């Protein structure tokens, strides 16, 4: 709970946000410095998709074992789960500022470990460290912003964190594309991820702790001093009273839950109708958000594009900018209309669109996978001379090939061709799905 609550981020509030921030730049400094945590989360989501293309080239074990690719990608998510869980405890015990600093340290160390990794196992360790930092920062950043910003523009400032997440994803694809011609490719892509963490660490060292946390810990004078930098002098005492009222109400709610261990507190909290309904809504929304499949698309976007017949890493990364760009635009659209049309209506519309797209994709992939012919020299000979990649037919080690090998050897053949029609779109899609299924890129 935040004193005064988080007001709606409508058009008037965004105007007021701009006006207030112009008069008091310190407010925007607080919000943007903490918001880098969202940027870190978005950057991590997008950067591995491009780096994975080159990691597979350097480490043959990763190229041949899809479970190793999946482990490298997913360990950041596993680390984020743990980081978010422990982040809550660190927030309450040591403060929001300390939590962000620890997250930055973990992220910087993780990015460095990945950049110098001599083997896949070290990459996995680096991904876990990065995940721990991302988990802590992603849940602490909006909390710090909400507690260190004026109540009248709080909604607008907190919403910038979501924009920075999608902006970080778009930035990661740009960074990936910039390093495609540089020696070390993926090492630079992953290593550069430590720069935002370092920048945030330096910025946060000069910023104060959350005034709400300080007030709750009995450091009233420090809280008043910080509020004096955020609010006009004539409003400071009113905000102190609102802060006191909010914390007293929070303590009263905690008292209604009672003492005891964690299990006992959870049981009593669950018996509270308000808490239970809020928990239902919160869990349902978060689960739905993660299960729509956007993270899979963001993690494997360049790989998916390559399986559509684009062999070039650079081209695949460039085309992936469309996905991340639309994702960022979507967040801007939601910020503009969420308070005009409501959260529920926009969520229903977006979920309907997502379901339709997923059903179409599932139908196309299923149909193609059930009709795609087998890939071997025998099947190739059966379909006639040069009915598939000529380099594949003549290769002595064709059994070890994968889809990218064929594309890189003879890009003019696509997946299936013959003398009359060098590129058969039907077979191209079928080959795409066959290889996608066979090598487990999309599961």
UniProtKB/TrEMBL annotation:
<dbReference type="GO" id="GO:0016020">
    <property type="term" value="C:membrane"/>
</dbReference>
<dbReference type="InterPro" id="IPR005828">
    <property type="entry name" value="MFS_sugar_transport-like"/>
</dbReference>
<keyword id="KW-0812">Transmembrane</keyword>
<dbReference type="InterPro" id="IPR050814">
    <property type="entry name" value="Myo-inositol_Transporter"/>
</dbReference>
<protein>
    <recommendedName>
        <fullName>Major facilitator superfamily (MFS) profile domain-containing protein</fullName>
    </recommendedName>
</protein>
<feature type="transmembrane region" description="Helical">
    <location>
        <begin position="122"/>
        <end position="145"/>
    </location>
</feature>
<dbReference type="InterPro" id="IPR020846">
    <property type="entry name" value="MFS_dom"/>
</dbReference>
<feature type="transmembrane region" description="Helical">
    <location>
        <begin position="278"/>
        <end position="301"/>
    </location>
</feature>
<dbReference type="Pfam" id="PF00083">
    <property type="entry name" value="Sugar_tr"/>
</dbReference>
<dbReference type="InterPro" id="IPR003663">
    <property type="entry name" value="Sugar/inositol_transpt"/>
</dbReference>
<comment type="similarity">
    <text>Belongs to the major facilitator superfamily. Phosphate:H(+) symporter (TC 2.A.1.9) family.</text>
</comment>
<feature type="domain" description="Major facilitator superfamily (MFS) profile">
    <location>
        <begin position="30"/>
        <end position="443"/>
    </location>
</feature>
<dbReference type="InterPro" id="IPR005829">
    <property type="entry name" value="Sugar_transporter_CS"/>
</dbReference>
<comment type="similarity">
    <text>Belongs to the major facilitator superfamily. Sugar transporter (TC 2.A.1.1) family.</text>
</comment>
<feature type="transmembrane region" description="Helical">
    <location>
        <begin position="157"/>
        <end position="179"/>
    </location>
</feature>
<dbReference type="InterPro" id="IPR036259">
    <property type="entry name" value="MFS_trans_sf"/>
</dbReference>
<feature type="transmembrane region" description="Helical">
    <location>
        <begin position="185"/>
        <end position="207"/>
    </location>
</feature>
<keyword id="KW-1133">Transmembrane helix</keyword>
<feature type="transmembrane region" description="Helical">
    <location>
        <begin position="67"/>
        <end position="86"/>
    </location>
</feature>
<feature type="transmembrane region" description="Helical">
    <location>
        <begin position="316"/>
        <end position="338"/>
    </location>
</feature>
<feature type="transmembrane region" description="Helical">
    <location>
        <begin position="98"/>
        <end position="116"/>
    </location>
</feature>
<feature type="transmembrane region" description="Helical">
    <location>
        <begin position="30"/>
        <end position="55"/>
    </location>
</feature>
<keyword id="KW-0813">Transport</keyword>
<keyword id="KW-0472">Membrane</keyword>
<feature type="transmembrane region" description="Helical">
    <location>
        <begin position="345"/>
        <end position="366"/>
    </location>
</feature>
């Amino acid at each position: 709970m935040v004193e005064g609550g988080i007001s709606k981020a409508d058009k008037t509030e965004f105007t007021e946000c701009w006006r207030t921030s112009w008069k008091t730049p310190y407010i925007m400094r607080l919000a943007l410095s903490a918001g880098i945590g969202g940027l870190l989360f978005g950057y991590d989501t997008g950067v591995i998709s491009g780096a994975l293309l080159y990691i597979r080239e350097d480490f043959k074990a990763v190229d041949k074992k899809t479970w190793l690719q999946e482990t490298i990608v997913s360990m950041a998510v596993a680390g984020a789960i743990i980081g978010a869980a422990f982040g809550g405890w660190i927030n309450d015990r040591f403060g929001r500022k300390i939590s962000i600093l620890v997250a930055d340290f973990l992220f910087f160390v993780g990015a460095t470990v990945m950049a110098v990794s001599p083997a896949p196992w070290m990459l996995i360790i680096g991904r876990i460290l990065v995940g721990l930092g991302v988990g802590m920062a992603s849940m602490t950043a909006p909390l710090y912003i909400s507690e260190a910003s004026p109540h009248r523009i709080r909604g607008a400032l907190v919403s910038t964190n979501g924009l920075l997440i999608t902006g970080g994803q778009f930035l990661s694809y740009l960074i990936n594309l910039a390093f495609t011609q540089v020696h070390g490719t993926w090492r630079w892509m992953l290593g550069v991820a430590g720069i935002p963490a370092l920048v945030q660490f330096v910025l946060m060292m000069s910023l104060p702790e959350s005034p709400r946390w300080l007030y709750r810990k009995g450091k009233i004078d420090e809280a008043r001093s910080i509020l004096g930098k955020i609010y006009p002098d004539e409003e400071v005492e009113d905000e102190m009273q609102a802060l006191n009222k909010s914390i007293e109400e929070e303590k009263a709610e905690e008292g209604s839950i009672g003492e005891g261990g964690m299990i006992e507190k959870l049981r009593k909290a669950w018996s509270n109708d308000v808490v239970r309904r809020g928990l239902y809504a919160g869990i349902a929304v978060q689960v739905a958000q993660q299960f729509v499949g956007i993270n899979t698309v963001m993690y494997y976007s360049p790989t998916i594009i390559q399986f559509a017949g684009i062999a070039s890493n650079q081209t695949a990364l460039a085309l992936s900018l469309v996905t991340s760009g639309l994702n960022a635009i979507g967040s801007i659209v939601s910020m503009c209309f969420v308070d005009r049309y409501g959260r529920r209506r926009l969520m229903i519309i977006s979920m309907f669109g997502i379901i339709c797209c997923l059903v179409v994709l599932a139908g196309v992939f299923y149909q193609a996978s059930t009709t795609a012919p087998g890939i071997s020299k025998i099947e190739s000979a059966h379909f006639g001379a040069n009915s598939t990649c000529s380099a594949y037919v003549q290769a002595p080690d064709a059994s070890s090939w994968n889809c990218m090998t064929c594309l890189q050897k003879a890009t003019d053949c696509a997946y299936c061709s013959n003398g009359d029609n060098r590129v058969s779109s039907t077979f191209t899609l079928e080959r795409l799905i066959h290889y996608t299924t066979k090598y487990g890129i999309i599961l």
